[in-house]
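Before going further, learn to read the protein records used in this course. The integers have meaning only within a learned vocabulary of local backbone shapes. The record below shows the convention in full.
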Amino acid sequence: MAGGGTLLSGCNLSKQFKGLLAVSGVDIDIRRGEIVGLIGPNGAGKSTTFNLLSGFLPPTTGQLTIAGIDMTGATPERISAQGLVRTFQHGSYMPSMTVEDNVLIGALGGTRSGRVPRAEQADVIRQAIALFGLTEQRRQVAKNLPHGLQRLLSMAIAFAARPTLICYDEPLTGLNQTEVAVTLQVYRRLKSEFGMSILLVEHNMRAVMAICDRIYVLHHGEIIFTGAPEEVKASEVVLKAYLGEAHGL
């Protein structure tokens, strides 16, 4: 059940690039054991916000706190050590390595709170591979997998690091309907069985509405609405921001 203590908090986050204010005054928090969506029209500032939260960009102004520790301007490695792991839009895996070896990298590079002891690594690898439906492909080289399975492999690697918070960047892109359904079910298990929190930056509105406890809506670099999926669907402010796009709301 969602609603534990705050795990991640971004307060008044802004990012400026050579005079362009890409993100302005963003406040966002993620509680323990909840799935949070970050959505918005193209160019809304989702990727910039995602990079600010995961340490891949330092904020121009504002504060980032993870597990009660000020991590403003911290490196991705320091942030990962606090339990946050992220994926990337174009995959997070080693193309020339097998599925098993890729997932092992995730386990070996686990967060400080979740680093996997050597005696448990084999079980963790099997569990991660099975959870994301990759058991039959476990000995295949990653670059030979279909695109959808490569996306699932990136998710399995992140899970194997045993984080407290996984940040998924457009994870459902390129997945067919069956793969999307399986992935959403896995997310529910990550939350219910493993107590993980998830931040989901995603264009698939149907999926976001089905899986998220709360949703933040970005537009022109600012949060214009925050609420439960049903509240987002009913918001005139959100619908106006999405006019002209195939938003699926």
About this structure: The beta strands are 6-17, 20-31, 35-39, 61-66, 69-70, 84-86, 165-169, 197-201, 214-219, 222-227. The two ends are 25 Å apart (CA to CA).
